[in-house]
Design brief:
The structure is a homodimer. Chain A has two domains: 62 residues, Orthogonal Bundle (Multidrug-efflux Transporter Regulator, Chain: A, Domain 2); 55 residues. Chain A is elongated, with a radius of gyration of 23 Å. The first copy, chain A, starts with 6 loop residues before the first helix and ends with a helix. Helix content of chain A is 63%, strand content 3%. In chain A, a hairpin with a 5-residue loop joins strand 1 and strand 2. By secondary structure, the first copy, chain A, is mostly helical. The structure holds a DNA duplex.
Amino acid sequence: MNDLVTIHEASMATGVSAKMIRHYESIGLIAAPVRTENRYRHYAARDLHELGFIRRARDLGFSIDDIRHLLALWRDRSRSSAEVKTIALRHIAALEEKAAALHAMSETLRHLAAHCHGDNRPDCPILDALDTLR
Amino acid sequence: MNDLVTIHEASMATGVSAKMIRHYESIGLIAAPVRTENRYRHYAARDLHELGFIRRARDLGFSIDDIRHLLALWRDRSRSSAEVKTIALRHIAALEEKAAALHAMSETLRHLAAHCHGDNRPDCPILDALDTLR
DNA sequence: ATATAAGTATCCCATCATAGGAAGGTCAAG
DNA sequence: CTTGACCTTCCTATGATGGGATACTTATAT
């Protein structure tokens, strides 16, 4: 059962950088791992599992605070799925809102760019719009 | 021609906070305005015009570096519109990429949430997915 | 005239998630 | 025994913005 790995190996195995693993420990997102007598951190399978969880949640855009919450629920076998779903739905709404805002900016610019010659002449609807948009 | 206004009035007129106006000056995005003998900044119509330009560009999601570039082109009456269009097209692509990434996260979560009861039972496809996504 | 409120100045600190780097310790292979 | 690949902690930076402290000036209201 000596499946303890160094921070570098944990990083390779989970896709979380060593820097971030230490950071997550410093902010209390993960527990401090065991240390060998030379003060090196060593991670067990369970730790790697948690780091994988965190990375996947980050990949889905969850904030560290959300992940803290999700991790607590994940560890709690008697949790209700309702709370998890609430967090997820709130996050979905936030993601969609941001995506829509970016898309709206993009569309505005796309229309302006469509009417910009993009040649050597100075006339430019894009700059004109920034001059007096709306 | 005494249409000089205080930083607060400039803020109200342009929608850029006084904090940010000072910040833009400190990073050299805008020129330092004239000061009265009490060291208060005073802005002329041309300054307000530039601040408005900056705010509109920010509203379209341009970075400060992009805006620095756009401002230089805007001030240059002999600029070519090609360069402006290049910046805009690059920005459009970046906006769309980010929007797509957010949307993809949202869709993944939406599918997971659709199969989550959201009741008092602990079973939760969302946590299961974070456990071993893909 | 004077007290109070509002505006201005500069400076420092915080956010959020992540990365870079310095300085020094430890270990394994050449 | 050196070299290089790790490890440690601590400090700094990012990008755009806001908050706050402290001190000064100006404008309003009693």
